[in-house]
Structures are given as structure tokens and as C-alpha cells.
Amino acid sequence: MFKALLLQKDDTGFRAGVTQLEEARLPEVAEGGVLVRPEYSTLNYKDGLALTNRAPVVRLWPMVPGIDGAGTVLESRHPDWQAGDRFVLNGWGVGETHWGCLAERARLKGDWLVKLPAAFTPRQAMAIGTAGYTAMLCVLALERHGVVPGAGDVLVTGATGGVGSIAITLLARRGHRVVAATGKAGEAGYLSGLGAAAVIDRAELTGPGKPLQKERWAAAVDAAGSHTLANTLAQTRYGGIVAACGLAQGMDLPASMAPFILRGVTLAGIDSVMAPHARRQAAWARLAAELDPATLESIVTEVDLEGALAAAKELMDGRVRGRIVVRL
Description:
single chain, alpha/beta, Quinone Oxidoreductase, Chain A, domain 1, Rossmann fold, 7-stranded mixed beta sheet, 6-stranded parallel beta sheet, 10 helices, 15 strands
């Protein structure tokens, strides 16, 4: 038996709660399966949607949520994994179409896992989680485009969220001048502590704007979408790039072609869910080399499995900054 957070939905409605399950209930994996013991998981925006039933994220019922996990391999039918190996999992539809890691046991495909970098404990890896791994994918996209420190201000939207917090830390550490956009004026000190050189009110970006505006940003990391992304593109300097990785404001993009045609701006879509294994390894290797584990403590709130439901509601209500780590 193992403890898990189980989501159920039927004619009687939606239910979510911690329960004891038999290991035999874990879904099988056709090839290269591994049985793992997650030691820590985390709550991402997608987990919040699933746990509060605010959007149809879950595709298969019942479901154990948790798109992230870090811990130890117990059994393996995959050639790259042996019992005792330490792993990190991000994405791959886990928590949506396959039981996830908000549980004391999970059965996963070995191809989905990445070796836990020696620089991190499982708890630290989950303090990073999909949010930090996505932030690094964004940084790598900016670097591939040729963005270097000193090229100009780099905007980070959704700055107090998981992606935003770690993106600020990574960019500032590399010498970029980072401008953080947030709707939480009281968090300016927190953002400055992460490395933001300036903080602006997100209201400057969230409403309808002109197709082309004053050039402000050499590059940007956007986790909001909708008008925020449209205005960010309209304010990006000639030849600049915006890495788009989220849709906290909305999935729409009420923009024009003007920034792309008249200023040569690049919009780079960042996918963390199905990213190839080599790209995941590169991101985690860079995180291990550049992210100070001590910095993570300033952005982490830890809860146990029973506390995950309340924490998910706070996350969806916008009352969380940084990262929520779930201790299993």
C-alpha cells in the first residue's frame, strides 16, 4: 500500500483527497517501465488546475496528479535505469493521461526520466521543478538567438511565479539587467533579492495596446500570454526575442504582424512537456552549474501531501510566490 492524492470525477461530481492505494493499481507501462519512489513533488500551474478542477487538464479518471517528481528508482525494466538510481521527472503528460508523482509510488517510462544532478537533492530538484526547468529552456532560447549581457533590458512577466522567479535569478546571475513585471507591489523586495534591477506594474502590459510601441526590451520571458505577450512583442527592440512559455492571462494573442515584419522580432515558443531528452539533459546540466541551491530556499514553501489541496487553491487564487514543494 502507498499514500497518494487521488482525483475522481463521475456522475456525482469531482472529488480530490489523500488515500491509500494498492501498488497493483499503478498503471502498467508497455516497454521500459520503472517503479519509482518519489520523495518530493511540487505544485505547478497545471497541477493547480487539476487539483481545483478549474480547467479540463485531466484526460483520464481517476488520476493521481503531479507532473513533477524526484526520488529513487525501485525496480526497472529499462536498460538505462537500475534500482537505487536517483531521478527527476518533468512533464510527458504525467498527471494528465498517466498517473503522476503526488504519491509515494509511481510507475513511469524510463525514457521520461533524467538523472538527478549530483548538485541537487530531490527536494532542491523539486524547488526547481518544471517551472525552473522551463525558465532554463527560455534562457537557452535567448542565448541561441544571440542575446548577451549588456544588450539591453530583459523583461520577465509573471515575475513572482515559479518560472518568473527562477528566470530572474538565472538571467541576473549571467549579468543581464532584468526588469520584473508583477501585480504584487509588496513583492518588490523579494524580486530585487532575486536579482531584478527594476520592477514595473503588470498593469502596464495587461490591457489592449498599439501594434508597435516604444522599444524597451532586448529580450523577454513571458508566462502570461494574451495582452501581456502582445504588448511585450510591441515593445521589444529591433531584432529582439520573446520566449513565450505560459498563458496565465490567457491563451489568446491579440497582436499584429508589425513587430515581426517591421522590427524583426522573434517569438520563440517554449515547450517543456514533450521536449526531447537531450534538451532536458542540457537544461538540467546548466541548472546544476549555475543555480545556487541556497537561492532556492528563499522562493520555496513546503507542504505535505495533505496540505497540497489547500496550497493548490492558494496558487490558483494568486496568493503564492515562488515554488511550492510537496514532501511525500
